[in-house]
Amino acid sequence: MNYKDKTIIITGASSGIGKALAEELAKRGANLVLGARQYVTLCEITSELEKQYGIKALAVQTDVSKEEDCAQLINQAVLTFGQIDVLINNAGLSMRALFKDLDLSVLKNLMDVNFWGTVYCTKYALPEILKTKGVIVGVSSIAGYRGLPGRTGYSSSKFAMNGFMESLRTELLKTGVHVMVACPGFTTSNIRVAALSKDGQAHGETSMEEGKMMTAKQVASCISDGIEQRKRTLIMTRQGKLAVWMNKLFPAFTDKKVFQLFAKEKNPLIK
Ligand SMILES: NC(=O)c1ccc[n+]([C@@H]2O[C@H](COP(=O)([O-])OP(=O)(O)OC[C@H]3O[C@@H](n4cnc5c(N)ncnc54)[C@H](OP(=O)(O)O)[C@@H]3O)[C@@H](O)[C@H]2O)c1
Fold it and tell me: What is the predicted pLDDT for the residue at 208?
């Protein structure tokens, strides 16, 4: 896909991977529709990208857990640009708490944002993407292939997302629409700071060594190339590839390895 003059919707574009994707795709010539809750931040991003790259960009305040907001995001994109070529379901929220301590509203919140947000946006965008034979992307996670301790809600929502995307890809096989699942490894961003604690409050600090991770810019470049090449699944790190592969072949051994990894977090939840 040549990005010039294509219309791309990115959810969760006010921070981290979504914001980096907006910059990368603007650089490659796409027009953008950016959705997230922080409207002022989105407007600052769109006006900077328009100035810097000469593209057109629209900010739409969107809470993806609300179906009507997702419908509005897609509507605004069509009204402004007349077409949708790519939808990137990137908005996401994480958590950090043991299930025994977890208020169930946290798990529901994660499903609402990560899973239902993807379903709503995809549902409303699909008729337009069928017309352009475009691409639907789900920014998922290795946590969608391998359950992670302290992240029951996050892993469940990403497993659900992966199942949804796989079913949809198969349904759309003969339509010309492409469905890609992108699974970054650990990436430096706000995700662990915004992650919900057992009672739904933001964790407020990261539990990991952020300096050793992929950068959002690297992830954005990898996803942009993946869309262009119509890749099926992107697993971006060696650690991620190893985790998915080992979990298929040696699941009980992988339970122990994942336990050991998460027992090394700052203030670990498991010991
Ligand atoms: N960072 C990692 O290590 C990592 C690894 C694998 C996968 N991922 C996935 O990558 C995606 C992006 O995460 P990130 O690392 O860039 O995190 P981030 O910096 O925290 O960004 C998350 C984005 O999602 C948006 N968002 C959260 N709740 C929302 C809601 N209800 N409605 C609309 N937007 C919402 C936030 O915007 P507002 O607050 O303005 O709404 C923000 O723009 C997520 O799906 C995450 O699961 C991240």
Answer: 86
